Automatic annotation (TrEMBL):
It comes from the Eukaryota. The lineage of its organism: Eukaryota, Viridiplantae, Streptophyta, Embryophyta, Tracheophyta. It comes from Musa troglodytarum. Residues 25-305 form the KIB1-4 beta-propeller domain. This is KIB1-4 beta-propeller domain-containing protein.
Length: 339
């Protein structure tokens, strides 16, 4: 079946059993779903990221690759981590030699736009004792620990984003660093200190997502962490806080944003981006689109929670775009956005 061409961004809707009998997409601008024939390369896969029309997938043999679900093009990424020798990595848990790059230790992977076999850069948050940053480039046969002066001192990284040739990363304390991996050695620049968030962060545990507009404005979306196994009120208005980085003479500061105007932010498991709703007819303005997944203990065993939601900043409430709950199994596909 050849689907009707609908405007992007598309939301990929995985099958509950992980086998991907069909490839179903939901076009967000016109709220129209369509189905492609089954994609064999997605069967039994774990998805750990998406960006610019590509998925990052991993199989049971721990092979990681980039896959374009529409063209079928695939780029194999290294399946091993390079040796490391740094104090912050627990060498009792991870021996300092060539080890497998395990999908269940990957937090998120983002990569440069328009990747090819001979030209790509990928960065991952990877769990050693904390979430460290690892990277690989075209021609490499391994993932390398990203080591600069700004990755020391027990920093743990919560989210990563690629924009305009740089990788922006945020620590659990709210520090933002931009990495340039285009040269022989990585370079890093401190964009915002953690102290810039001290007076803004409310009580509670928030998941930070970093995004950037087409003009280079940096945004931070703070989403209240919740337990999906418990009852939840989707109409809460304190769940989401949106911040914009403002540059001043002293130091950059985060300002609370109440209205995004004709812009919306797409954050979560995919590479976070902003879109202009003026250019996409039917796309909701002033909204936060969020894709997320969790697993939690349940009396029937481990459960996977996969959700795609939209937060309307004017109404101050969530709307559900996709929701699925099923028993945990080794390979599964979360919902993902394909801009």
């Amino acid at each position: 079946m050849v689907p009707v061409i609908s405007p992007s961004p598309w939301l990929f809707l995985p099958d509950d059993d992980g086998e991907q009998h069909n490839s179903t997409f939901l076009s967000l601008p016109d709220n129209y779903s369509f189905t492609y024939p089954p994609l064999p390369d997605l069967c039994g896969m774990t998805c750990v990221g998406s960006h610019a029309g590509w998925f990052v997938i991993a199989d049971r043999k721990r092979k990681v690759s980039l896959l374009n679900p529409l063209t079928g093009n695939q780029i194999c990424l290294p399946s091993h981590v390079a040796p490391w020798n740094v104090d912050r990595v627990d060498l009792q848990a991870f021996k300092p030699h060539r080890v497998a790059f395990k999908p269940n230790r990957i937090g998120k992977i983002v990569f440069s736009a328009n990747p090819t076999v001979h030209n790509y850069v990928a960065v991952a948050t990877y769990i050693f004792t904390d979430r460290e940053l690892t990277y690989t480039k075209s021609g490499d046969d391994k993932w390398n620990l990203l080591e600069t002066a700004l990755t020391e001192n027990d920093r743990s990284w919560n989210d990563i984003m690629h924009h305009d040739g740089k990788f922006y990363c945020i620590t659990r304390n709210g520090e933002v660093v931009a990495f340039d991996l285009s040269g022989v050695n990585p370079t890093a620049m401190l964009v915002a200190q953690s102290s810039a968030l001290v007076s803004i962060m409310p009580a509670g545990t928030y998941c930070p997502y970093i995004a950037c507009s087409s003009t280079g404005e940096l945004f931070l979306v703070l989403n209240l962490a919740i337990d999906y196994s418990l009852p939840y009120d989707v109409n809460k208005t304190t769940d989401v806080i949106v911040l914009r980085l403002q540059y001043s003479e002293d130091q950059p500061r985060w300002d609370v944003v109440k209205d995004l105007g004709n812009m919306s932010l797409l954050v979560g498991t995919s590479n976070s981006i902003s879109i202009s709703t003026e250019d996409l007819r039917g796309m909701r303005r002033n909204c936060i689109y969020l894709t997320e997944f969790f697993w939690a203990a349940h009396f029937e065993g481990m459960q996977i929670y996969r959700k795609a939601r939209m937060f309307d900043m004017k109404k101050g409430r969530w709307e559900c775009l996709y929701s699925s709950t099923n028993k945990f199994h080794e390979q599964w596909m979360p919902s993902a956005l394909l801009p």
